[in-house]
Amino acid sequence: MDFNASTLLLLLPEIVLLSAIAVILVLDLFLDQSKRVFTYGMSLAALVATMAAVMLGDNTSQVVMHGAYVVDAMGSVLKVALLSVGIFAFIYSRRYLSDRNLFKGEFYVLGLLAILGMMIMVSAGSFLSLYLGLELLALSLYALVAFDGDSKPGSEAAMKYFVLGALASGMLLYGISMIYGATGVLDFAGVAKVIASGQADQTVLTFGLVFVLIGIAFKFGAVPFHMWVPDVYQGAPVVVTAFLGSVPKIAAFAMAMRILAESMGGLGPEMGWQGWQGMLIILAVLSLALGNIVALVQDNIKRMLAYSTISHVGFIFLGLLAGGDKGYSAAMFYTIIYALTAVGGFGLLAILSRKGVEAENLHDLKGLNKRSPWLAAMMLLIVFSMAGVPPTVGFFAKLFILDALVNADLLWLALVAVFFSVIGAFYYLRIIKVIYFDKPESEEPIAANVDARLAISVNGLAMLYYGIFPASLLAVCQAAIAAL
Amino acid sequence: MEDMKTIYLILVLAPLAGSVIAGLFRNQIGKAGAHWVTILGVGVSFLLSAYVFWQHVMNGAPVFNENLYTWMVVDGLEMHVGFLVDNLTAMMITVVTFVSLMVHIYTVGYMAHEDGYQRFFSYISLFTFSMLMLVMSNNFLQLFFGWEAVGLVSYLLIGFYYKRETAIFANMKAFLVNRVGDFGFILGIAAIAMYFNSLDYAQVFSAAPDKAGETISIWGDSQWSLMTVICILLFIGAMGKSAQMPLHVWLPDSMEGPTPISALIHAATMVTAGIFMVARTSPLFELSETALSFVLIIGATTAFFMGLIGIVQNDIKRVVAYSTLSQLGYMVAALGASAYAAGLFHLMTHAFFKALLFLAAGSVIIGMHHNQDIRNMGGLRKYMKITWITALLGSLALIGFPGFSGFFSKDAIIEAVGYSQITGATYAHWLLVAGVFVTALYSFRMYFLVFHGKGPRDEHAKDHLKESPAVVTVPLILLAIPSVFIGWFAIEPMLFGDFFKGVLHVASAHDTLGEVGKTYHDQIGFISHGMMMLPFWLAMAGLAVAWYVYLMKPSIADGIRSRFDWLYRLLDRKYGFDEFNQAVFAGGSLFIGRLLWNVGDKTVIDGIAVNGSARSVGVLAQAVRWVQSGYLYHYAIAMILGLLGLLFWFVVR
To answer: Shortest CB distance from A160 goes to which of B74, B622, B632?
Structure first.
């Protein structure tokens, strides 16, 4: 537990990233607008270097920095996932930003800071460090949403996000203080120990749990704490939405795992309706129902995907509440796959947007197949994956969750989930129909740059690859969960 | 072991790679690129197969049985991708890749001036991949994957000329009829999964004897032997794929596809998948005598009655197609008599000589500028020397002329069925013996009408008749070699040696081949023994009748036709299977479909379920939209209400 220099080695990924951010921030000041692409390259390099540091680092489970920082396999896997999804989001952003004179270093610095915050959340060992990471993430995101200062919807969305985020933060902090009051400690392992010993006051603990859970639900965007999601997704520039709609889900999953499974595991599935399983059931069912049903009537595709996100969050919650190695690993698989899928979907919208034209309504996708068969095929894979159509990976993600539910004797929940997925299939298929069967409104060819084209191809084909070889990723998730 | 694993993987994946490249990049690589890349892929596959054959058969390499990838585990049921390579697999992959390679090369000439050249190469390479997956599988699931994949490619290729109405009709028919078979097949696999909780061959086969006495009730209280149910269900799958009566109707129509695929898929390889599957699962079939009888009777019936139809066909490809049906019947009958090795032996010899006959027919079709009616041909031997000689060799092999490959395999089957003691064996034996005469008759009817006599009867054909190019004739020659010789070399190890030791399982009570083997000494002895038996004389009689009736006195043929008009009409209408299916199944489905559409779809589903739920979803969505007002304080209120709700539910209550 004592501090010595070798513990710093375990923090190497965060250190690498932070140093890179500092360097980029300063260097960017001295670059002309014409050389801005250098910042972009450096940011990608920073992410790759951080990923290398995660992969090469030791990931045997250990707790350092007086309980504030945890190293384990789950953390490493999630960090690699969020870094890779972050790389996709950055690549999709370049041409979109430069078309709109938004190609500035701040975008990448804020993005990197958000990622740093998320890495801290992933590796948090106590409520304090978790909160620290969360705020770093949240503050960066508020600024990113308002990144286009001239856009009124953007500023409005940022404002709403900020106020509601502050409210949720307050609730989370209040909940943490309750838990601290009940247990007297702040680190997750300590809280778990006190709960297991039965010395904590059950009422105070449950009281705190509700507040903390709301913090988690807000971060995910679960009903009824989802109100910010559609407005922010729609208001923010689409490349910010791509980032905000994908990577933070991974961090939110880590937050849920650390708090619910690791520290409050004693109030978990074995308590049934009395513990957090019951709360998650309510939130999950509400999210599945509301997300899928409201998405049906959306014509703005960003808003449609926002509601679709809400329904996917319902699925992730189902995995979490099923509990056990099976449920947690299914939820982890689902989260990672969802993040990868979502970044692809929004990324494609960014690719389709041209100077002065936002591709954000369904009719902007009309006849995409005629204009670019390859991009249409990638969108097909991504949308199929969201809908859960085999052989794309989305099918297996859903299947593993349902399997975990059935295993946990929650057959009725599985049926509810399938029912709403069927409703959800409708609006996904509507996207496909528009892409393949409608006449294009403009014949203008799509001017995508090579890096974005390459990234979207990798992204789309990953849906197919992991659909055919789901075990390759599932095994990693299972190993990570088993090592907790 | 690791080296071999890599070899197996490359062997399977090389054709897939060729197919993907030729299919996806067809515009970039052009015609020549497409045929080079696929021929290279299949060529690599063939060389490796030959190496595998050499390793397993000559050097006695141990059986390879390993799972390479776990696709998923559901409720304890493991689903793997894995390879089982033993002598049977080695034999199958060598035959498949050899014929496939020949067909690839041949296609370069046959399809030279057709549209969809690259698409065609992509399909046949994909087929080769699927077929290899099928025969190399070590479990039922992968077998099913290969089974469906070859079916898919077959469907695509029958409808290759997708602008032609008849081709679309034919591929739909093939698809639907195969659905019937596959339905039985997957029920069989499901029964295996249910009772054995495993799909792995080795595990299922080792557990099978313990389950021999089990019964299941399908409906009511009647008890059925588990093994009989499983085996008959599996065999229904084989009936679809290997075109056994009454599921044979798709195969003649499949001739709508280009000739090279008729040779590869609908004669040499895919249609034999059913035979392969039954042989592979011999440990199960041996446990149910009822199932074996079923197999035997179906096979023998197909062998005889489909051959009869061949006599009245005038389309050169359809004659060969009915001959294929009949020969498949022989193989199935061998399986029913537990002479699995004989069935597989005939499968191998048939693959060579039938592919040869089809490709020769294709060569004739090229020469005749895609006129396929044998009444327009005649005297072609003067124009197409190589095609003529190779077709003669193929026909001799088919009718079982002593010394040719077909002689050994067919005689072995007939004798083995003769020794069989199970129900229906006598019936089957006589049909098979009579079938020999029919085979010789239709084969040489076609041969004489095409290559001999004065002709061609189509006067215009004279101007353009010439021998086909080398890419067509070389595969003919290469296929003619095994068609003639393979029987001589393979009969001893395959039928009476230990080639299939440990692969095929034959109960001692059913060991018909063992009985045949008691009198076997060497090839010469087998031939001289065969020449004293009835089948040989029937074959010679068939040949003579064909010669006399169709070459010397064509008037007799017309006389017979008008005398036995009812028989001719019955055969010409193929016993009315098509009309029956069309009226009862197609018509019945349409009737039920209309009924359901009117009552179920239009009123219940559209009216109440879809429009009703759409309306309620719409109302609900509007309500939520109203809540999502855009006002910040509404959002905050929603959060706080949510908080209060949770607090009330979990803390206060």
So the answer is: B632
A163 shares contact with chain B (CB less than 8 Å): yes
Whether the CB-CB separation of A12 and A57 falls below 8 Å is answered with yes
Determine contact, residues B110/B258, Cβ cutoff 8 Å. Answer: yes
Instruction: Tally the domains of chain A.
Output: 1
Q: Which two tokens stand for residue B161?
A: 């000329």
State the pLDDT at residue B364: 86
**Phi–psi pair at A410, nearest 5 degrees:** -120, 50
Do A164 and B624 lie within an 8 Å CB cutoff?
A: no
Per CB-CB distance under 8 Å, the chain A contacts of B623 are: none
Touching check for B623 and chain A: CB below 8 Å?
A: no
Residue B62 has a CB neighbour count (10 Å cut-off) of 11
Helix (H) or strand (E) holding B444: helix B425-451
Q: Average pLDDT for residues B44-56, to the nearest whole number?
A: 89
Distance between CA atoms of B396 and A347, rounded to whole angstroms?
A: 66
Q: Chain A contact for B629, CB < 8 A?
A: no
Half-sphere exposure of A273 (CA within 13 A, CB side): 3
> A379 falls in which pLDDT band (50, 70, 90)?
very high
Contact between B638 and A224 using a beta-carbon 8 Å cutoff: yes
Of the candidates A49, A50, A47, A27, the residue with the CA atom closest to the CA atom of residue A38: A27
Does the pLDDT value for residue B578 go beyond 90? no
Longest dimension (CA), chain A: 70
User: What letter does residue B200 receive in the DSSP assignment?
Assistant: B
| Rg of the Cα atoms in chain A | 21
| B630-641 pLDDT per residue, tens | 888 888 888 899
Dihedral, B109, B111, B115, B119 alpha carbons, nearest 10: -110
A218 touches chain B (CB under 8 A): yes
SS (H, E, C) A310-351: HHHHHHHHHHHHHCHHHHHHHHHHHHHHHHHHHHHHHHHHHH
What is the tens place of the pLDDT at every residue in A323-359? Answer: 889 999 999 999 999 999 999 999 999 998 877 778 8
Determine how many CB atoms are found less than 10 A away from the CB of residue A367. 18
Q: How far apart are CA A389 and CA A406, in angstroms?
A: 20
Q: What is the pLDDT of residue B246?
A: 83
Task: Indicate which of A233, A294, A325 best probes the interface with B, i.e. most B CBs within 10 Å of its own CB.
Answer: A294
d(CA B596, CA A12): 66
SS3 A446: coil
A with B: how many residue pairs have Cβ under 8 Å apart? 82
pLDDT bin (cut points 50, 70, 90) of residue B558 is confident
Whether A293 and chain B come into contact, CB under 8 Å, resolves to: yes
Q: Are B149 and B130 in contact (CB under 8 A)?
A: yes
Residues in A closer than 8 angstroms to B639, CB to CB, are 164, 167-168, 214, 218, 224-225, 227
String of DSSP letters for A123-166: TB-BHHHHHHHHHHHHHHHHHHHT-STT-HHHHHHHHHHHHHHH
- In eight-state DSSP terms, residue A198 is T
The interaxial angle of helices B425-451 and B385-399, nearest 10 deg, is 170
Residue B653's pLDDT band (cuts 50, 70, 90): low
Task: Specify which of A117-121, A264-268, B531-535, B648-652 reaches the highest per-range mean pLDDT.
Answer: A117-121
Does B619 contact chain A (CB < 8 Å)? Answer: no
Q: For residue A253, what are its two tokens?
A: 């999953």
Judging contacts by C-beta atoms under 8 Å, the chain B residues touching residue A159 are: 632
Longest dimension (CA), chain B: 106
Contacts of A211 in chain B (CB under 8 A): 643
Provide the token pair at A104.
Answer: 């500035």
- pTM of the entire predicted model: 0.69
Are B307 and B277 in contact by the 8 Å Cβ rule? The answer is no
> What is the span of the domain harbouring residue A358?
5-482
